[in-house]
Amino acid sequence: MKANRTFTLCLVALASMTAFAQKDDAKLLATSRSTIFYPVSKVNIDRQTQERTIIWSDNENWNDNSATLWAENVPEATFLSHDFADMNQKKNNRMAGMGWELTEEGDNTVLHCYMSMPADAVTNFWLASDETSIVDLKTGINYRAQRSVPDCWGKYFAVKAKEGTVLDFQIFFPKLPLSTTNIAIYGVPNWFLRGKALTIKRIRPGKKEYDKVPDFKLPKLVSKEKDYNRDNSNSWEVYTEPHLIKPVPEGTMAIWRTAEATYLAVAHEQNWMREYFGIHPNTILGDQSGKKYKLKEVKGLPSNGHLFWIEGYSGDHIAFLYVFEPIPLDVNTISFLEPDSEPFKAWGANWKGDSKYGLDIDELRENQKLFKYNERKVVK
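Structure (tokenized):
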């Protein structure tokens, strides 16, 4: 936690950080990143059963929809990531939560199209057809969709499920080569994929190796806490001479993995010559399987939830070094989760949690160079 910084943490995501893990070998390539709430208009209510049926509109398809297919065995999304944590939270009776994830599963690339049921039944719905494809924007190679789950290829269909259930409509494509990084998806109108350009992330091949323990300067303790009271700033510990770095955006991170521990550096901009910080003891890292890695310590600073002061120069860029339980080398992405803490009395006070999801470990390792110690130079 940093002084006067506001972050939002949705705690319901802590127990379900994997969204796409329908299969153990699934690899996440891309995601819509958030829930899109789609307005629905035509609603019919059965007078006897009171069941609500949504008549879907705006399919942008000119095929004949005179015969309606009732889709069966539609998979449910049993795991939802933080990106879609609000999908099954009912906004109102006129909104349907939508989102998507692109994965690699065995010999296929699979587009998972999620929809939170806005009613007991939805009719006049559309998923995919012969127009559905993925295009490699570098090579121009066109990968045509092969099939869908449920089997509703090129047809309008209807689906019935409990209102609020998140359904997982799936479209299968040929497996994309490892060299493919920039693509566009076509022919999935209800998820706004009509030539949507996006970048997919690939895990770098090669043997994974442990890092060396980072060389970090530890802050110097100026005064110990005295009868600690979070509402009394005079009781907080005071530190100076933290690890200084060259300017980077607030919250930039880097990671070092060793057999004994995981080291995570977090950058902060110092806005005042004396600024308060706090580190929640229940801060964790999580991987794509949902496994959590506990915080062991923060080098040279309290990690028990007590607030503390850092003295320096306004405009300094500083870094804290978190130490977590070791993360296996086969983990490719992590999430950083810091819960909210109790409010306290101070000017501009807040302690909102910080949450960052889908952090690529290779990219975090590349950031190690950003955290070299940078001696302060002052011109008066």
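Helices lie at 361-366. The CA atoms of residues 87 and 97 lie 5 Å apart.
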